[in-house]
Amino acid sequence: MTQKTRASLKDIANQTGLSISTVSEALRNSPKVRPRTRKLVEEAAARLHYRPNPLVTALMSQVREAKQPTDSLVLALIDASNRKEQLSVSHWNATVIEGAARRASILGCKTETFSLGKETLTEERINQIILTRGIQGVLVLSMPNPWSKLKLDFDQFSLATIAYSLRSPRLHRVSPDHGRGMRMALKKTTDAGYNRIGFYSDKETELRVNHQMLASLYWYNQQIPREFRIPPLVSEFYAKDEFDAWYDKWSPDAIISPRDFVLTWLTERGVQVPDQVGFVSLNLTESLLECAGWNQRPDLQGEAAVECIMDQLNRNERGIPTNPKTITLDGEWQNGPTLPSEPRPERSKLGDIFISV
Predict the structure, then answer these.
(1) What are phi and psi of 250, to 5 degrees?
(2) Adjacency order of strands within the sheet including 332-334
(3) Of the candidates 255, 249, 250, 247, the residue with the CA atom closest to the CA atom of residue 274
(4) How far apart are CA 107 and CA 242, in angstroms?
(5) The domain that contains 263 carries what CATH number?
(6) Is residue 284 part of a domain?
(7) Is-contact 114 79, C-beta < 8 A?
(8) Which domain holds residue 207?
(9) Helix 298-314, helix 87-106: angle, nearest 10
(10) Of 127, 247, 256, 342, which one has the fewest beta carbons inside 10 Å?
(11) Is there a domain that residue 67 lies in?
(12) Are 92 and 207 within one domain?
């Protein structure tokens, strides 16, 4: 039996009457090729069932990168956090920036941060600067609120954002897997022998994480006996008196929260942690106290976002994606003094519960 020959760039060139180099540029979405020519090439490639060799594609990408000066490519990082009023977002973004700069350096480029705000640069000014300087890759960091919008000449850039605070436009995003983080916290807490687990957060945080923490908690509560279920407290704003009323009503023996000042409130009540009540932080990056909990690793999110932008640049993809993708990272668990690190099955009253992490 004769083996079917794989279609090549030369075959497409013969069908279209174009040069091999033009065909190659068209298949890489190069802006040098006119839309009409690109369509001609794509139609011929479809008829011939052309499939690029991924190993050759990767090799040629490296060759093209090697021909450019290592400092010629700059990725713009847009940081809209208010460093005076929003210390938590500012610290988060600073950690993302560290990871992004580290990965960019390895890939042979560099990053530059542009501060967006009333006292710094406007959207229009940032747009003008990055266009004038020929910057083609843009990473939008976490925004001041979870319903933020941004206006740029998006068609000119390869784009990505961090987490869910940028609601418009919808870009490729890199985010912690908040649902997994919550399930990990629930597993560690139940393994440590706690039975009545409460969750305390606020509405803005829940919007920022796309409600993933609550979704995992609601799933968990369906797996345990009704008498051990505690309704979550999701406040408009964090308020100690509201927390105290919730605590007195439901008597949790463990609390999971993205804010570590809950630990201070427990201490002020005279609660012994972890002997009487265990505590888990879902955001160790911003925690000022030593806690057990989940580290969302924003530095790795910065690295992954840079890789996402570089992939788009290598494929000559620009603008708002038709089908944006979300890259989720696991984060990692860290033991701490607020939760026993060893399982205590003898204390559990919940029965056999399987929590997938």
Answers:
(1) -110, -15
(2) 233-235, 197-202, 254-257, 278-281, 292-295, 332-334
(3) 255
(4) 49
(5) 3.40.50.2300
(6) yes
(7) yes
(8) 178-295+333-347
(9) 50
(10) 342
(11) no
(12) no
CB 280 within 8 A of CB 338: yes
Tokens (6 digits) for 204: 């803005």
Amino acid, res. 192: A
Q: 342 and 217 in one domain? A: yes
- Tell me the pLDDT of the chain (357 aa) as tens digits: 344 567 888 888 888 888 888 888 888 777 778 888 888 888 888 888 887 765 455 455 555 555 555 456 999 999 988 655 455 567 889 999 999 999 999 988 999 999 998 778 999 999 999 999 999 999 999 998 888 999 999 999 999 999 999 999 999 999 999 999 999 999 999 999 999 999 999 999 999 999 999 999 999 999 999 999 999 999 998 899 999 999 999 999 999 999 999 999 999 999 999 999 999 999 999 888 999 999 999 999 999 999 999 999 988 899 999 999 999 999 999 999 999 988 887 788 887 788 888
CATH code (residue 7): 1.10.260.40
The answer as to whether 53 is a domain residue is: no
* Cβ neighbours of 43 (radius 10 Å): 13
221 token code pair: 């509560």
Q: Which residues of 247-256 are buried (b: 16+ CB within 10 A; e: fewer)?
A: beeeebbbbb
The residue assigned the tokens 């912690």 is 176
The per-residue b/e assignment along 205-233, b for 16 or more CB within 10 angstroms, e otherwise, is bbebbbebbbbbbeebbeebeeebbbebb
